[in-house]
## 1
Amino acid sequence: MKNRGKQLIWQNYQKDIADDHFFYVRSCIRQNFFPGAETTFLRILKDVLNKDVYDDPSHTTCTGIGYHTDIVPLETTMTVVARQFALMTEKGYKNFIPSCVTSFGLYLEILETWHNYPEVLEKTRSNLMLATGRSFVLPENIVHASDVIYKFRSEIAKKAKYRLVNIHTGKPLKVVEHIGCHYAKMFPDKSVGGAEFPRVLSGIIEEWGGEVIDYPERRHCCGFGFRQYFIKANRGYTFSSVKKKFDSMSPYEPDLIVTNCPGCNVFLDKGQYVISEQEGIVYSRDGYGIPVLTFEELTGVVLGFDPWDIGLQVHQVSVEPLLDKIGVKYDIQKKYTDKNNRLLGKPVKPTLLKTL
Amino acid sequence: MGNLADRLKADLHYREGMRACINCGTCTAICPAAEHYDYDPRSIVELVQRGDEEELETLLKSDAIWYCGECMSCRTRCPRNNTPGLIIMALRALAQETGFFTESEKGRQQIYLKRTIGHDILKTGYCVYAEGLGTDTHPEQGPIWDWRQNNWKAIMERLGANYQKPGPGAMRQIPEEALNELHKIFEVTGAFERFEKIEQFSEKKAKQLGLQWDDSLNNEYIKQLYNGNSNENSNN
């Protein structure tokens, strides 16, 4: 009886994830900070899973960061979002996948507003027509890019070269999954698994052999807070949030953190450097900190892609201790090189946080 | 103009975020901003629900409405389906409409956001264009970011970006036609009106405070609000 009740609850948090023919919209933060993650995502969909994905040169920011710093009005953001849908419509696609979690939440929020207030949808249509001459059909399926990897996690596991298992001990890697707030906290029923126990990353991790850590501050925000990081005077908000999370997770000695939101990845990675410099704390016994990978990067790693093609060298926390545990072969000489294998110099070493 | 309570109630964010608050305080318990700042979303929602004009004006002029990080954790938890984070967005919009935002230290920061994120969106088509944003202003990004900044183009190309070129791909040059459409959308939907209000009220405040003002990010007024912290806001 107990199990059946849980299954019924779980059914509320299942969602349809399209099988093929995706219209991909990029993330401003991910492109700037982890361009290799988006390159890797498209490579996985096209070359490994043989899916059709369209990457439209004409799409733009959704204005999400401007919207959440309150400089861009809702009506403007709705019309920019409508333009993205118009591009999708013009290219004949119906399945919309954003790279960014802020964007994903924003698309859901706007679709809900349009559902609740049909006159607002009509006003947006006329604004878009007036400004651009374009019209649009609402997407049939809208999911985050990490949902697509979740859907194909078993297929990826079958093609994987590595598992999330420590080759030296034979034990599963201990993994922290950090879900961006706007993935499920606003619309739990539009996520895989809901807001408290979203399955989108934990399902992937377990399928690939890892063990998910449940720690007290697991659902705490990374601390980005939009205006709270962008303004130097407010950054205490961001890094006290980061510290709260790491103080909470570190007793469980994670081998790895995986994120689906690009902003979270920046702050959980760079935040370890900030805390090491300011507080003299490093959150791992070996002194290298806890590597923080995006979901695309992790998928690329298990599929055996070259770590430096994926872009693992752009993280502040060195990834080599993790790669060594998984058994990934890599050429350290190629870590800091350009596309022609010319050395681009090496980053300066932090005071306390060890790097390779 | 209408009174403040009526203007607030006309805002879609308010209509979506405010049903009937039972003052349980769950939002404050879950709120990351309430951990860091002297901030209590419960009492803000309660004040707004009461609708007293004088209290609303004081609130709009205060730092309190600028502490929220818009993570929307409150939305998940509220037993009555209110969203304090959306009510905050409505309050911030009204503070910018009325000019009250310049009466608080944190509210004055809007000019910096408008001149960076707002300008990046229209100039590049990206919310954030991080090339050139070095560790002088963003020291938290660490030594790896210096290496990124020193080799921006080469690393972009190494990682498969289509850096500043036409066609699809990461960090592509967004076509002129798309930027023109963004511009036109901003014009038609009132974004430029908000931008102009942020500029005008900020200039007025800079003069009132006797701080140097110009079109750059380097004027005294902006430097003070970007770097300065009275330390009266934090719990830590």
## 2
Amino acid sequence: MQAPPPEHCPGVESEQAGLVSACAGCPNQRICSDPNKKLEDPGKALVAAAMKDVKHKLLILSGKGGVGKSTVTTLLTRYLARSYPDSNFGVLDIDICGPSQPRLLGALGENVHQSGSGWSPVGIDDNVCLMSIGFLLGSVDDAIIWRGPKKNGMIRQFLSEVDWGTLDLLLLDTPPGTSDEHLSVVSYLRDDSAPDSLKAIIVTTPQEVALLDVRKEINFCKKQRIPIVGVVENMSSFRCGNCGNSSEIFPAKTGGAAAMCQEMDVPLLGSLPLDPQVTRACDAGEDITAINNATTEALATICSKIMASL
Amino acid sequence: MLDKVKNVIVVLSGKGGVGKSTVSTQLALALRATGHKVGLLDIDLCGPSVPHLLGLEGRDIYQCDDGWVPIYTDESKTLAVMSIGFLLKNRNDPVIWRGPKKTMMIKQFLTDVKWEDLDYLIIDTPPGTSDEHITVMECMREVPCNGAIIVTTPQGVALDDVRKELTFCKKTGIKVLGIVENMSGFVCPHCSDCTNIFSSFGGAELAQLAQVPLLGTLPIDPRVGVLAGSTASVLNELADSSTAQVLRSIVQHLDGLTAVPTSA
């Protein structure tokens, strides 16, 4: 049983670790306060070894849930895989409680196989593979009722025991928030000797109640020193299939993503209009690169901006 | 803990962004509009939305001898609100906490907030089935918790997660009062054609699958979105809208279950 950290724990990575008043009485104070003895998580070396052939890692983040992190991850993966047939892409779904990638990438019901070199991810396309906790569940109804430490253990396993092979880009789909999953993945993947190997994309919708949480996520990235490639505004408008007029379903009363990007000093990569055709294709796990409309055009622009920034 | 609270209702969904906070606030406002004294507790620590939705951003929590005093929306003191949003110095500050710290905060919200006599306490949750949910369910064993309202949107990818939440309710022994399907259709303001952007009937199918009542289907209504930032209830502002009708029937359903006499 692990003792809970003291209430105002400065965090083991802080320079104040073991030195502030809250540390008095903490069983780990001696380890924290001695800079030479600072123990590095043994998992970090394992992750680094397993990921040595993965060139770039891209976190898909958003403070808010349901803005389309998973959909954007899927759309990007499909489009990148189609546009860069000579590159290899991987997707890791670290949303432990609500994995969506198996459905969106059309791999519901697939199984992962264990081999000598670790878990083999599920192949989606010639140059795309996927790992998700969804593959380890017996049924869709199975719930993962885990507290933080157990989720962290699972993420560590996904990072260190999956046989990713050689990848040009690994996209990591995350749950909403700024908590265990996010801290774990960042602490395992951030490499201070190669700060550009881990970057983030932020997904938002135009209304203020979403932007409110997304600003928190941008500040999370700044605090954790993760470079932000840019912001994708999803569900920005809706074109009626009957009369062809556009309407704003989630009105951008505060200027939407464009105003927020300016305020927070991050680039805006583009806006994706809401499109029932794409929504349905995603639900069914179909490849969207065959669809040709405003949403996929916007997607093409976003993809080329992302590839240019890596 | 919560000894002056008669009924507790938890609003859950495995999926994020389906409208838990909007349903929670509008349900609280609808209960208030029908004469109840209501509390609203927001336990989404990383993304608190309730202060913004009720136009209460920037208000400060005061400490009294018995604990924290919740924010009252007006003089009548019929709606009390508590959220971590009131404790942050800046609205853009992230709360970067691991599980144990979140657990402590939620326990504090349940034990140290001075809720007065309440007919209903609505608890708004973050998405998922993890620390926040486990903690709140553990605490709910000691209080008169009526059960959970599950919010979903109709598309398959949301239903996958919501089915996990239903399993969570079963495993932790909390009663599911019913399912609310949100964002079920969008009526084009130009031609009045209704498009089911996020497909349709998902909520009904889920309710049948889980053998729980479907409490109602809420359309995407931009007029409801415009009410965000105020304490206006859909019941008064948009009395004829289908959103108001659904909320009214949910309130009736809850009153039928709990038989709380209206105090007004």
## 3
Amino acid sequence: MFPKPDDLFKQSFEQWEKQTADFWNAILRDPAFLKSAWQAMEMGLKSQQAVNQAVQANLETWQLPTHDSQTRILHQINRLQILADDLGQRLDDLIAALDAGKENSPQSR
Amino acid sequence: MTDSVDALGQLWRQWYDLWQTGYAAVWQSYAQWMGSLHAYHLGQSQVGQTPADEVWRMGRARLLRYRPTAAQLYPIPVLCVPSLINRYYILDLLPERSLMHYLVSLGLDVYMLDWGQPAAADAGISLDDHLSLYLHQALDAVLARSGAAQATLLGYCMGGMFAAVYAALDGSRVANLINLAGPINYHDEGIFSLLTRADWFDADKLVAAYGNIPAALLCATFQMLRPTSHLLRALYLFEQMDNDDYVRSFAAMQTWIFDQVDFPGAAFRRYVQALYQENQLVHFRFTVHDRLVDLGRITCPVLSIASEQDETAPARSVTILNDLVGSPDQELLMLKGPHVGMVAGRSAPKYLWPPLGAWLTAHSKIING
């Protein structure tokens, strides 16, 4: 007659979860909430940036490479590697085309 | 005296039976938990296991070719383009839940572009570079290896947008285009449209603070959308603890969910500003290295796959591609289920794979392998 305690618990839990999720979804879609959430996050970002800048300034004082300069150089190296790989590939294609041309030329027959 | 001995004997037997029952129950529970634990570990280790070889690499990205299993191969290879921020193996989650395995079994020559984990040095790699360098060269490698002049692009999630943009810019190399839950219109009712609105969201500040947008932040954002869902999933797991298949697939999915990758900073900035905030793609203002992307220039066969319950890429945001392309041969497949569930959930082998496989094979001519 009565539902099993396990089933009852599961049903109520599912109901609670759905209602909480709907409530949270409504909050998430509220522009006022989003604006204040972003403002709070912005404060965190600012303090993180301040720490980064302080570390960078100290490294520069000691004439050590900073995180930014390393990132910049590594990015340039990456791009050069990509371009070199691309050029290598094109060279291989050209050599293959030349070899194929030589094999098909009248002199080689 | 005899009665006392009998009573004592009976008491002993009762106690012994009780002890044995309790001992057996404890042992049974222990065995069940160990079995579940084993299934959990198995699920974690079985992700992305369809046999594949790395055939190309550039920086952090690599191209995988799934080993063909069919005697005959279709001549048009398929290049799968996943999202930049999730691991590619969502399309190859478990042996029985692998779209890749299914496509390979049909005789298709399937490749996967794995974007890899960006390092700090990759923060400057723009969205344009991802398209014109990484995707372009990966496609070069696919065509060179297969000997085909064109390939099918199958983009999932953000990869759907990548594939569509590429097809608009370099259509001569694209035989077919499949947009699997990839948003094209970014001004929709989806939650990400709202979260990234220019009124409050400043991508520049995030990139300035972090460089690459950390995977942990992206993961937290996804979890924040429905924080209580974890509790519900835990309840279902507890309920199905003795079901090894359930535990295994749960573990595989959890592994994928928490195995996210950083979003390269420059690409994130452009993605948010040009697409989410200005919706440039549908307004014909999106450019890649100063080349205007006109989706109307796509004339190859197009298949868009969307789900009515997808909150990450709402159906209308995906299907708008069919209105914008100039292809005479276009099809639309509407499914049910969430963004991830539609490709890797229990219903995927029934509702997604067969129509997708049929469309792909119909759009590729067969030759002797």
## 4
Amino acid sequence: MNSQDNKPAKDRRADIPPPPDDIEVEAESPPPDPDSLRAMFQDPGVRNYLFAGLAALAMVFVTLFQKGVDPVGGVLLVVVGGAGMVLRWPASPHFFLLILLWFLIFPFGLPPPDENPFELEDGRLRVADILLAASVVVFLASNYRLIGLTTQALPFEQRYPAKSQKPIRRPPELIRPGEIARLLYLTAGVALAGQLVWLFVTSVELDDAGTIPLRLVDVRQRFRRGPSDGMPPALNRFILVSGLVFFGTLLARLVFGYWRLRIMSPAEGGMLLQDAAWDETRREQMRVARWRAWGWRRAAEQDEAAKRADQSERGRPR
Amino acid sequence: MLTSRGWWFLAIDAFLLVLGAVVLPNYTVVPAILALTLLAWFAAEWVMFQVRVNAAVSRLKVTRRVVQGGRDVPMVWAGLAFEVRVRVHHDGPVRVPFALFEDRLPQAAELVAGDPREFAHLAADEEARIDYTLKGPATGVLRFEGVRVRVADLHGFFYHRAFLRDEIEYLILPPLTDDEGRQRADKRFNTLPPPGIHRLRRPGSGGELLDLRDYRPGDPPKMIAWKASARRDRLITKEYESDVPVRCVLFLDTSEGMRLGPPGHTPLTRMAAVASGVAQAAAGNRDLVGLTTFGEDAAKGTSPARTKLHMIDMLRRLAEAAALQPGTTGVPPEQLTGRAFPLAVELYPELMTRRTNSMPLGRLWIPLLDRGWGWIVLFAFLYPWLLIGSIFNAPRWFWKPWVEGMAVVAEGITRHKGGTWVNFLILMYIPVLIGGLVWLIYGIRGWFGERRTQLTRRKQLAALFALRDGTGPGGIERLIHDDEAYAERVGRFLNERQIRVPIPLYDDRGHYRYRCAGKTAVLADALVRAVGRARDNELYVILADLAELGPDLAPLLKAARVARARHHQVMVIVPWPADVPPPDDKPRTEPVAPPDDSPMDRLPWEKSKKKPRKHRPVTPIDRTARLLPVIQAALTRQYHEGFRKLRRSLGQVGATVVRVNEGDPVQVVLDRLDRLRGMRSRR
């Protein structure tokens, strides 16, 4: 019999050499800190959004360059947008939009802007504009989703949260396959919708005399000298855009409001009816409740007085 | 609901849109197109979110299982871990891309393992799984409220909160005792009768000889004592002792004073644990155990028995008793609202919104005529109109002095400035103006500040309670106006959910509010009733806080005397407050630090090594801090004295008094039961 076989199990385990230090044991390596850059690159879902955002930024740069905007503006936008994504700066999308607005108005970075009387006619369904709008939507969507994955996805419940309260992030495991593809489809749709709405707003003007208060714009009228007989075009566009937003919201609220009514729980419906009944009768109810409270108070006072009288009666020597 | 991120985005987009559509089109149309595209994107996201909320979130269902020992249980044991398995699913046609489900943990439970939260994206055929392990540290009730749901879109623009109510209560039964509960159920010594048997000196069918008597016709022949008959030359019959079980009745005090303290650590919880230990040990010994719970108003009891069903029923009653919470009488309504409102918003989010539970501004307006002086203001507001009206209708003496007096004053003013008629009208309508201003300023105060917050919250809570109780709109105003009813209802709401409210322990006159002197009469009644039903020597164990009752103990002393006269044993176990040292402990002799290191405290030849400190004025907090040990010592002394008196007075009638922290009270009771069992066998 081998002498090694006679050793107890504990001693035999001691003979096994320890693993060399240079071999990394994967199971023991700690998971990266979700706040770190490394974590952003390690998770494929997060990485995809990061790359999608950066690609959209590159597209914005190219489109602006093609539109004749000073490359400094494009570079500035890429730097602000890219840094905001990588450093998870929640305000970066807003600054990105404002800087983009600045360079769209002043392509060379400084006032005055170049006036173009044909811009309104030429600016319909321009490919560069569609690409720019779509790139901006992709960048913003990627940026916001990245913020949700790495910084905060759900708002705090309290108005003033405690410092120790940690924000809730969306776990990367919840990223479903095809999310970016769906985002691109949606972007294509909304970019087209934006163009169509702008086409509508610039092709139609208000007609207060017509049965339908809208009519097609007479383009020649726009370039005629002297006072125009209709509403100023700027005011016309403002009213049309406001009207579209207002009636669109109204329609959506009506549809979803009716849907909410249909799916309302019995308790919710009961509360709604009770609240309406209370609102109609609250003055009478209040008066009755106040009188009752006054009656109880008076009865309690009388009881107290009677008790005191009783006590003094008992304490009196006979 | 729009989040702040959504609002910011919408604001910047609106700015872009207005600027791009109105101002900039002659320079560039791109901002307008960009803004419209972003708006379309935002609207599309909003529509999708609304569709998901309406079609999927509103159809969420929750199922819950509590598993202990590998199977579903309707109740759990204290101190043992159990698993909670919650499943959330919906049957809507759309998918929820991002939701957080969080099971609301019961107050009386400790999280041992797992996470009650789960992130999920849910389609119709999927379910979110929340698995975690809890432990109920003390006897009581475990109440699950439901699952909190938070849904957001992927960009964080929109947010929806819901609560899937799944109210269910599980009893936490007292822990199964180990040593006491597993006592041997066989006979250990020949001198003792078998467990569960107690010899009674009455003729019966036992095994021990009780007496010999003359034969009576009808006695069975096998009972004839032949030797004794032969000796006496007449027939003698043997009589045997009765074999009866030992009976123990537990009286548990559930009055409000016993319910004070942190949840799970109240005197009532401790006493319920003691009662459970005694009951299980006695049942293990085949003794019969009964339980009577009593408060200030009534007592409720079960007769002694020893079946398993009876034991489970008793443990259930102990768990229910341990879960009782102190009432909220005397707690200010604002304090109750402060506790109840956030809870109600969390549990009933859809019933506490402004859409379903509104507060109109008119209800917040403070009515002027609630005050006595309001009528004066009203008169000042109305009297010019009344005066003008009375000129045409009322008798002359009614308006003439006023009008003439005012005319005289107006003429007097006219000498300095203005015309007489103008001054007359100004004089007449100044009170109207002042009255109107007073009315406006007084009433509008209700729209702002703390009053608005308090009244709005109270109304919303009142509406919720009115809906749940079915009292309708009338119940709302009643709860708003009646502080007592409101406190009672809110207290019930909080107690059901085991939320504690800071309770004033002393009343306006400085008396302890939870002395509960009325319970002694109820206890005495219950004791006498138990004695009336008793068959033989029984043991009555009273688990009650009686230390500070003093002269109010008289009914109990009488009842204990009755019990002792019938040869029953009475034992009182008193819960000892955690912050009061036992009477056997030596008082602490810590040196009291000098209040101030002033030169006056030192002798002239003693030199101070420290630098003289600046004299700090004594604040009320300092005074309170100095008084606190003195007050605590006085209260301790008072409690010791009360306990000593209780022990002496009950000792005089033959009852034993034991403290909970004095040894093992369960063992003391078991020893007494053993003594009862062997009492008649030691000859």
